[in-house]
Design a protein that fits this description.
By secondary structure, the protein is an alpha/beta fold. The chain contains nine helices and six strands.
Length: 201
């Protein structure tokens, strides 16, 4: 039942976003502030997609990525099959409609990826305590629920290879989505309530 609901929600989201049938949607973002390494790596990928119409992309440069937004606008990358935004204020729709999510590996993002059963390419921030985003990402990677590119290895070439590898094998993509979905904890409220009730007793 959950799988059917997720598929129905995805179909609705894709219609809202104007994504045609048979086209993959890639969603990429580096958090609300943005991530310069991701913006740099995505630039030529977005240009190529705009020229060959291979994938649909929604990319957020972040609130600190104004200079990148201007670069993208100069190339006309604000509509069509490539859409570049400063901030994504309809993340629920964009992530629900996406076939592949590219971004950091914070706990909230990964919870959403798992809950929606999304394939992902994770680029952990190396600037966090005890490198915890790397370990977050590896929890998915070790279960076949996503892939990882460490920021030190992030280039346009490495990211393009990862995207093409993920989207060129539909059967593998479906398995990754299923593995991610199986990692989701969807009854957190009930678990917390049970603990509170048990402690109250």
């Amino acid at each position: 039942v959950r799988g059917e609901l997720l598929k129905a929600r995805k179909d609705i989201s894709r219609k809202e976003l104007g994504i045609p049938n048979g086209k993959y949607l890639v969603l990429s973002f580096g958090g609300s502030l943005g991530a310069k390494p991701l913006n740099d790596a995505m630039f030529d990928i977005l240009l190529e997609s705009a020229n060959n119409d291979k994938y649909y992309h929604i990319h957020s440069v972040g609130t600190n990525g104004g200079e990148f937004l201007e670069k993208f606008k100069e190339k006309g990358l604000v509509k069509g099959n490539v859409e570049v935004r400063q901030y994504i204020d309809d993340m629920d729709t964009c992530m629900s409609g996406a076939d592949l999510v590219i971004g950091r590996a914070g706990a909230s993002s990964l919870s959403e990826i798992e809950a929606l059963g999304k394939a992902s390419i994770l680029i952990p921030s190396p600037y966090v305590a005890e490198n915890h985003q790397f370990h977050n990402a590896m929890a998915l990677v070790n279960r076949g629920a996503g892939s990882i590119i460490e920021e030190k290895d992030l280039t346009t070439a490495s990211l393009k290879e990862a995207i093409d590898s993920m989207l060129s094998n539909p059967a593998k993509l479906i398995q990754i989505e299923e593995n991610a979905k199986n990692m989701a904890i969807t009854d957190a409220r009930e678990r917390i309530a049970d603990i509170i009730i048990s402690l109250a007793k």
